[in-house]
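Quick illustration for those who missed Monday's session on complexes.
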Amino acid sequence: MNNVSALCGALLLSLSLSISAEPLVVIKFSHVVASSTPKGKAAEFFAKRADELTKGKVKVEVYPNSALYKDKEEMEALQMGSVQMLAPSLAKFGPLGVKEFEAFDFPFIFDDTADLHKITQGQIGAGLLAKLEPKGIKGLSFWDNGFKSFSANTPIKSPADLKAKKMRIQSSKVLDEEMRSVGALPQVMAFSEVYQALSTGVVDGTENPISNFYTQKMHEVQKHLTLTNHGYLGYAVIVNKKFWDELPADIRSKLEQAMKEATIYANKIAQEENDNALAEVRKSGKTEVYTPTKEERMAFKKAMAPVHSKMADRVGADLLNSIYKETGFDPSKL
Ligand code: LMR
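Prediction with (2S)-2-hydroxybutanedioic acid bound:
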C-alpha cells in the first residue's frame, strides 16, 4: 500500500511539474544584432527574468542576428503579430510613420549618455513611446547602445574625407541628410547586409557604435575607424499592443518588472560593451583606429550643423526645441 501511495505521489508530482513547466505565454523577441551586443545581452537578460518572475509561465524566445526577420520585415511582423517583441534602433521608425524618433539621429545633439537619458528617461521619451499606440504598438522602454563612429577603407580626419563615399545608413531621413551634409552618398541598407556590402565594395563605409562594428566583423573589411561619436544609436523596446493588452494582468505586471530590470542592465553594460569591442578592434590589428583632435571633431560638428535647421520639420521644430532645452545644445552657436 505504501509503495502504491508513493508511486501515486511521484506521478502527481511529475504531472504537476510537467503542467507548470508548460509556458502559458510565448513571446518571440526578434532582433538584428549579435547576442554578444548590448541589445543581444539585454534581450537574454529579459528572457531570463521573465521566466524567473513568472515561474516559467512566460517563455521569451530570443531570435538574434536577423535570424527571423530583417529590419523592415520585423516591424511588419510585429504589427501582424508574427512576433511579439522587438527592439529596433530609433532610426528605423520612419517607415512606420513615426518620424519623430529620428530626432535621436540629429548629429551631435547629445554630448553624452547623461544628456541622452534626460530624453529617454523623461517626459519627452514617454511622449515618443505613446506615439506608437495608433500603429498597434506599445513602447515599453528605451535601451542604450552608444555613439556612432565613421569607418571606411581610407582615413577619415575631416568632413572632406567622406566626400563622394558611398556610406551605408539606417532608414532615417535625418541620417540621409547627415551624410549629404559632408558630401557623402548615403545608401539605406538592412543591417544584415552591411558586412557583405562593405566586403564587396557595394558601399565604401558606414557609421556604427563599436559593439555593432566589431560583432558584425566589420573590422575585417574596413581599414579605418575614426572615433567621431557624432550621433547616437539606441533602441525602443516595443510589443504588439493587442498581445500586450490581452495578457493576464498579473503576468503583464511581472513582465513590466522584468523589463524595468532589463533596462537597468542594458544601460549599465552598453558603454562597457562598446569599450570592450573597441579594445578587440584595436587588438585585431586590422582596422586603424583614429581619435580625432578637438578641432577635427569640431569641423564635423560645424559641417553637420545645417542638418538641424534643414530637417527640423521632419521631426517637428517643437520636439527638437524641447530636446535642445533639455540638453543645452544650440546648433546656431556653431
Ligand atoms: C543598424 O542597422 O546599424 C543598427 O540599427 C543595428 C542595431 O540594431 O543596432
